Description:
Blueprint: H1 2-10, H2 13-53
Amino acid sequence: MKNLIARFVKDESGATAIEYALIAAGIAVAIITGVNAVGTQINTKFDTIKTKLN
């Protein structure tokens, strides 16, 4: 039983998976923020064009 608990405490594969998940979440937030900013700028450009055409 002690051996099982010792192996569980030393096992770092779960921590590595959590680290990768946090990195992926950070990248996803950065992508969403960037796409949102670009989308807002494009929407403003189209509104300007629409106004000039009318």
